[in-house]
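DM from R.C. (forwarded with permission)

"hey, sorry to bug you on a friday — could you get me a structure for this? deadline for the figure draft is monday and I only need the backbone to look sensible"
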Amino acid sequence: MVQPPTDQGAQLIMALGQLDQLLDAITRRGFRLIGPTVRDGAIVYDEITSSADLPAGWTDEQDGGTYRLRRRGDEALFGYNVGPQSWKRHLFPPSSLLARVRSEDGVSVAAKEEADPLAFLGVRSCELHAIAIQDRVFLGGRHQDPVYAGRREGAFIVAVNCSQAGGTCFCVSMQTGPRAQSGFDLALTELLDGDRHEFLVEIGTARGAEVMSDVASRTASADDTETADQITERTAASMGRQMDTGGIKDLLYANLEHPRWEEVASRCLACGNCTMACPTCFCFSVENVSDLTGAEAELQRSWDSCFTMDHSYLHGGAVRVSNRSRYRQWMTHKLATWIDQFGSSGCVGCGRCITWCPVGIDITEEVAAIRADEGETDDA
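My reply, with the result:
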C-alpha cells in the first residue's frame, strides 16, 4: 500500500488490523499507553499493551444512579460512553507526595517523576474540554502545579468521536461534543457497518502525522468523511439529557436562597461521588504523615470534596455544615462562579455526576427546576 500524505488536518482510513500498528508506533516513541479496558464490571482507563485489551463488543447503559455493562451485537472497540474514571486520575492522581522531611537531612521537595510520558487512547470530546479546563486550573496561573505539569507535559492524545450518546450525556448543551474539534494529536471515528470495520483518522498535530507515517492507511474519500459526519450528527441528536445554559450564571446567583436547594438536600447523601467522578473537580487536601519514630515525615496530597465537613473548615468551625449549603456550593461553583474564576463553565456535560450519584440526583433537572420557578416569577 502506498503511504498517503500525513499532513496536519489530513483524514485517513485505517483498517482494524492496523490499530495495533498505531499503538506500536506510539509506544516505540517512549510513551506509556493508557486506554479503556473492562475491569470490575466497568470500563476504566488503565495501562494497555494492544488492541486485545480494549472493550471489544461491550457497551454501557447509564441513567441516574445506574451503570451496567452489556454485550453489543458487534465488535465495536469504542461503542461505550464514559465510565467512572476520567483522565484526571492520570494527570492529577488521587494521591501524591509533595515533600519529605528526614531528621538527618532536613526538608526535601518531592522530585519530578521520572516516568515515561503518557499516551491516552479513547479520549472523548467532553474529556478533551475537561483536560483543557484542568490545564487552566493547574497551569494557567502564576504558579504551576508540578505534579500535574510533569504528567501533562508531552502527553500524546488519541481522541475518539462518540458513535452513541449515553443516557446521562448532555455535551451538546455544553458545546463540548460529541465530535472532537481540537486538543488531540489524532482523532478516530469508528466506522462499523456489516463487514466493514475501519477507522477514519484525523491528524491534529505534527506529532500525530509523524506517528501515522508508520501506519498503513489510505486517504479518506468523500464518502468516508460523510459517513463519519453522519455518525457524530446522529449522536448529537440523541443526547440523554439537555441543559439550558442561557444566562445560567446570573440565574444561579439570583437564586441562592431558592427552596430547591432544601429539596435536593433532602435526597443528597453528601457522599462526594459527584466530585470524585467529575473530570474537572480539582479540590484536594494536604496532610502530614510521620513514621512511628518521628524521624521521617511526608507531606501528602489527596483528592478532597466540597461535600466534606473539613473542606470548608475555617478558624472556629466549618462554613458549610448542611447538605443544602454543600450541594449549592458544588453546583453554583461548577456552573456559575467557575466562569468568573476561570473564564468558562466547569461542566463538560459528561453526565458522570448523574450516573454515579447513588440516589440519582440530576444536575440538569435541578437547573431546570430553578429556571421554571424563575419563569413563573417573571410571568407574575
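R.C.: lifesaver. The longest strand covers residues 32-39.
me: no worries. Residues 62 and 167 are 5 Å apart (CA to CA).
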